[in-house]
Amino acid sequence: MVISFSAVKKILAPHLQRYKSKSFHDKDQNVKNEVKIDRVLDLRGWSCPWCIVKAKSWLNRMKSGQILELLGTDPEALKNFPSILRHGNDRIIEVKEHSDYHRLLIRRG
Q: Rounded CA gap, 90 and 59, in Å?
């Protein structure tokens, strides 16, 4: 079964939270939103359930408030993450689609 990214995004939309910190970047002093990434987990090419198992393992070793950037290609894992994370305090704060992979930011609860 193939799931489009837009369908997955609709599933994840209620679970997304905005986590933004402000910093001044341009000479015009425009405020840009950015998130400090604490760890990066590249799971491109991995399939579910291994993506979720690996991500949960990494999250369990992180401190509360830290951000895990997860890179993946499996739409099933992307679809299942909200229900897996619902049982704890970890939250998906951002989902971005790239041409050949997706990127999730997960804040450790």
A: 8
Which residues touch 13 (CB under 8 Å, ≥6 apart)?
Answer: none
Write the Ramachandran bin of 105: left for phi over 0, alpha for psi from -120 to 50, otherwise beta: beta
Catalytic residue among 16, 48, 62, 93: 48
Interatomic CA distance for residues 73 and 48, integer angstroms: 10
pLDDT in tens, 87-98: 889 999 999 988
Q: Give the pTM.
A: 0.68
Is 51 marked active-site?
no
The whole-angstrom separation of Cα 44 and Cα 83 is: 21
Q: Which CATH topology does 5-107 take?
A: Translation Initiation Factor IF3 (3.30.110)
